[in-house]
Structure formats: structure tokens, C-alpha cells
Amino acid sequence: MPDSILAIDHVTHFFGGLKAVDDCSFTVDRGSITALIGPNGAGKTTLVNLVSGALGCRSGSIVFDRHTISGRPSYQIAQRGLIRSFQISRELGSLTVLENLLVVVPDQRGESLFNTFFRPRVGREETRINVANALGVLDTFSLYSQRDEYARNLSGGQKRLLELARAVMARPKLLLLDEPMASINPALVSQISLHLRELRDRGISLLMVEHNLEAVDELCDDVVVMAEGRVLARGRLADLRKNKQVVRAYLGGTLASSAAG
Amino acid sequence: MDQLGYYLATLVVYFFVYNILVWGLNIQFGVAGILDFTYITFFAIGAYTAGVLTNGPAAATNQHYILGLNWPFLVAMCVAAGVSALAGLALGGVALRRLRSDYLAIVMVSVGTIVFDLIANNPNLFNGNDGLGGVPSPFNDFLQLDPNTYLYFFVVFSGVIMVALGLLAHRLTSSPLGRSMRAIREDLEVAEAFGKNSTRIRLIAMMIGCAYAAIGGALLIAFISAISPSGWLPPETFVIFAALLIGGRANNLGAVVGALLIPVVFVEATRFLPKWPSNPELGAALRNIAIGGLIIATLWFRPQGLLPERRWRWKGPLPAMTHGSPDA
Q1: A171 contacts chain B (CB < 8 A)
Q2: Minimum CA–CA partner of A126 in chain B
Q3: In this structure, which of B61, B251, B284, B323 has its CB flanked by the most CB atoms within 10 Å?
Q4: ipTM for the complex shown
């Protein structure tokens, strides 16, 4: 049985009376790219928020890399190596592109109060190393020449790339990507696909919420389908296309209804 | 010594004190984004703490206050900074942990008003509404300077403290810790999602800012040897906010410009406008209205302030890139 990096076990979450996630359980294999698909309102983003700690998980348990993370604050989950991206780019606008990467480097000694005031050299030395790494990452993501630009001035596509570059810089073990391909052009989709595959090859596990099924088909080893807060099915996308429930809930749902209308 | 020299030297000390205050608020609001709407309270905590620690026992005077320990000024100033930082920790620990910034601001204003009423109406704590007086001039028990020479000594003394605090503020704002504070100011949720303990980091900013406010307060009470509640009315916080917003938030030099322009030049210049005999309070009221107008005008026409936040750039060597587009 393959080793799982993330195990979601009987997780339920309510927003008031609305059951957004309903007794949801699945695992993500270490070193895999797993897709989480499903119709709008299936509870995918809520699940991402629960796993990353942005929402408190009150029912069920989430185990990441052999540590129970459900109920932990999001910064502690991030410190363990579970890094998320956001569905809508959340760049730190008045920081430069380079700073957006520098700020997320884990375990910075220059952040300690003592070093800040009495040994500023520690922070400077560390920054020199981090800058070298960050420039390399920016180069990979074609953002090198924008390094000194304020992040808020980037184009929509560049912000998507920055979102990914920043997540890489945080040295994750598991990347939780909320629609990394949302609202970007086809050329960029293939560029991002390439990056994601490179990350997987470097040993980073990925769980991505995505609606671009072509990209999912190409990239993902494993696909989890959610509908109405529950896991409906799981497997390879090619097999799921034959699953009647999946077709009805998501894949063919829109086609069927538009044909009927 | 001539009157003008005396007046200008006094103004310089006021400028130094305000400069320290604006730097402290810059760390809290400019860098970390904490809407500390009761900043002046921490100034007062510093002033009163330094006052009751350097004063002799209250029994020897006809005032009523706690402590009265005859401590040397520098020790009292450090303790005052510590007490204020702890007060900031207590308030921030309650308010910063959960509350959104708008609710946080309301809590800050409420607590500030409560503290103000407590100090003004309790005659036994810091001599109530009459204010705390008779605070000794630092070092003058062995310097034995005449008042005019001592004034110049105090200009240098407060200047040294201001420069030291300015260097420390610069170290903070140019450090990785300062960058994390700015990240939290921009988007707290994102900072948390990347492993920043935002509560801890914001509390650090809160405490440092409160310590700066207290050092400003300690210097001021040592300089004018007295403080009363009328000297730190809650609206005074907004004079310091005005200085920071107009000078330029998150820019230490902008804070200097703001401290010079608003509390010193603007408030002093308007002091000499003719007074209405029928209503001598009108001048001060109009001054506050004018400062409010200046804040609005700044936010409207130049929201970044006179000296905007400086863009951080890497000035070291750039590595050769493989397949990117290194611009020359």
C-alpha cells in the first residue's frame, strides 16, 4: 500500500445550516499529483481551507506527514510543510515580487527579535542566500525581470505564476493548489503544467483543485471527485469518465442539461 | 540667554519627542498595520511611570501619587518603556488575537478612554486631574547647571536617545522581521498560510511601538517636569496619526518629516494666531479641525504621504540566469 502524505478522515463542516463538507475521507499518496474535481459548491475550496487551517476543522481528523493537523492554526500547518495557494491570486501587493518570495522562506533566523536589533548581519547574510535562491525560482517562472516590481502591478497571469513561485519558495512537502489554472491562457496552462510536473519530480506531493480536465488528464495520477460535500469516486480520469454518477454530477452534467434545454 | 534661543531649543526637544512618538506609531501602524487608536495612552503610561519613579515620596510634596522612589532617570525610562510594552501586550493580547481591524480600533479607543478617566479621576494614583508635578530634571542633581545651560544639555541628551531609537527603528524596518510585519499588514491570512505567527509578530510590533511611546513620554515629563491629563487628551493620538500619514507611513524619514510638519511647525505656528477674547478655546478647536482636514486632504491627494514607503531592492550581485530574461 503506498505511503500517504495526507489523510482526510470523516471530515464534516457546516456553514450555519449548510453542510459544505459531509463526512469526507480520502488520502493523497506521497509523491503524487492528485486532482480534486467536482461541480461548483461541491465543497472543494472549503476542504482546502480545512486542510490548510484557514477554517477550523471541528469534526473528523486530518493527518499530514504522520502529524494530526486538524485543529491546529494555519501557521503551524504551514511550518510543517503544507503550503497552499489561493483560488484568486493573493499577492502581497506593496511588496516587490522578489520580497514576496523572500518573506515566505521558512525558519528565518533574521526574524528573531534579538538578531533584528543586535545582530542585523545575521539577517543580511541569510537574505543574500535567500535572494540567490529566489532569483533562481523567479527565473524558472519567467518572473526574473519583474523582480523589483510591486506585486500588485503584475498582470493576472503573472500573478498566477507568482502564486506558484512563492509556494515553491516556502519549501513545501505538500502543495495544496486551489485552481492554479483558473482564468489563464492556454500557453500558460501548459507552462504551469510543466512546472507542476517538475515539482512532483523533485519529490513534492501535490493536491490540486482544478476544472481544466485536459490538464488534469495530462498531469494527475489520481483524481478524487467530490459532489455535495462527499467523495463520489476516485481513480484515473479515464475510468471516471465511464462512471455514471460522476458523469451525471460533474463531467456530463452541463452538457446534458444544455442539450435538454 | 535670549528668548528666541530658549524658545527654539524647547521646540527642538518637542520635535525630538514627537519624532520618537511618530516612529513608534510607524512600527505599529505603518509597518505592521495595527490601528492603535489609543497610542497616546502609552505615551502617558511612560510619562507617569517615569514621573513616579524619579520623584521622591509623595508625602514630601502636597501631591498624591504611588511609589515615589527617587530613581535615576535612565533606569526609570527603561522601566517605563517596559511597563508600557507590557500594557501593550495585555491590550494587544486581548484585541489583536481575534478582532478584525475595525473592531480592534473600537476596542483601542474604549480602553484609552477608560484609562484616561481612571487616571484623571483617581486622585491617589497620579495626582488626578491636577497632574503630576515636581519631576526632577535628569542628571541635574550632579550637573548643577543653570536652567538655560541645562536646556541645551537636554537638547543633546534627548537627541542622543532619539538617534539611537531611530537606528533601532531602521534596523527593524529593514530586517526580515520588518518584512514579515509588512506581509501581515498586506494580507494576514496569506502570511499565516506561509507559516507566520501573525499574533506573535503583531504583538512584537505593538510592544515596540508602546515602548517608543513611553520613552517619548518619559523624556517629555522629565523636560517639562509635569504632566496633567489635559496634556494627553485622546485626540492627541490623531495628531500623531496625522504626522505619520502626511509624512509617509512605513518610511522612517517620512515620520521625521511628519513630526516636524504637524506637531511642531503646524501646531506651533497656529499658536500665534490671534485669539478670540470671547472664546479662548476656539483656536485649539480650530487647530484640531484643520489637522483633520489635512489628514483627509492627504488621503485624497497623496495617500502614500510626502515620502512614500521605499521600495526594497536587492543591491548585491545578481547571479547569471539560465533561461530567463536577465535585463541589463
Answers
A1: no
A2: B176
A3: B251
A4: 0.90
